[in-house]
Amino acid sequence: MKSKLLPIPLILLIVLNGVLIFMLLKRPHEKESQNRNQRNFLTAQLQFSIAQKEQFSALEQPHKEYMTVFDTQIKKSKDFLFRSISEKNFNSDSITTSIGMIVAKKETEVFHFFQKVRNICNEEQLKSFDEIIMNALHNGKRRPPHESGMQRPMNRNHPPREGRRPPR
Fold first, then answer.
1. Span 81-109, mean pLDDT?
2. Residues ≥6 apart with Cβ < 8 Å to 84
3. Entry pTM
4. Rounded CA gap, 109 and 80, in Å?
5. Which of 31, 109, 111 is nearest to 70 (CA)?
6. CA–CA separation, 32 vs 38, rounded Å?
7. Which of the residues 64, 77, 95, 160 could staple to 166 if both were Cys, CB 3.0 to 4.6 A apart?
8. What is residue 26's predicted lDDT score, i.e. its pLDDT?
9. 163 near 84, Cβ under 8 Å?
10. How many domains does the chain have?
């Protein structure tokens, strides 16, 4: 009798492990929380009124849909590009040009979205909005972390640390 019931907890453990692996890899709860925090950051920093928050939400929904479409198109195009890597006479120019055009459309959508958000700001909020956008623009150009996990110095013209060779 015990051996007949053994598959039930075993199957349950396998399913729970699958769910756990999904949650660890995809982390949907963190992405949702992160997106919500980014939205709340802008509306909080600009101290939007209730009416402005409603206008912002009305602008944000179609913007998110456009961004999802662009991201999907880019992903599909890159998948096609890298699936074709083993083909001998594959010309990547057209697909990379296509990816570039999609990225350009995406950047244009981001620009227009923030233009619309700026239009719902009052005079006091405009200066803060412009500063936030410029900070986001410049902070988005961060370099990848160094092997040690520290940020690489922007100026590579400094002498090497003791015991280390200069970069080539």
1. 91
2. 90, 92, 95
3. 0.60
4. 24
5. 109
6. 10
7. 160
8. 72
9. no
10. 1
Residue 21 within any structural domain of the chain: no
The per-residue pLDDT for range 42-92, each reduced to its tens digit, is 888 899 999 999 999 999 999 999 999 999 999 999 999 998 888 888 888
Spatial distance between the Cα atoms of 106 and 77, rounded to a whole number of angstroms: 14
Are the C-beta atoms of 145 and 151 separated by less than 8 Å?
A: yes
How confident is the model over 140-163, as pLDDT tens digits?
A: 654 444 444 445 555 555 555 555
Boundaries of domain holding 98: 42-137
CATH of the domain at 96: 1.20.120
CA distances 10 to 13, 21, 24, Å, are: 5, 17, 21
Report which residue type is found at 44: A
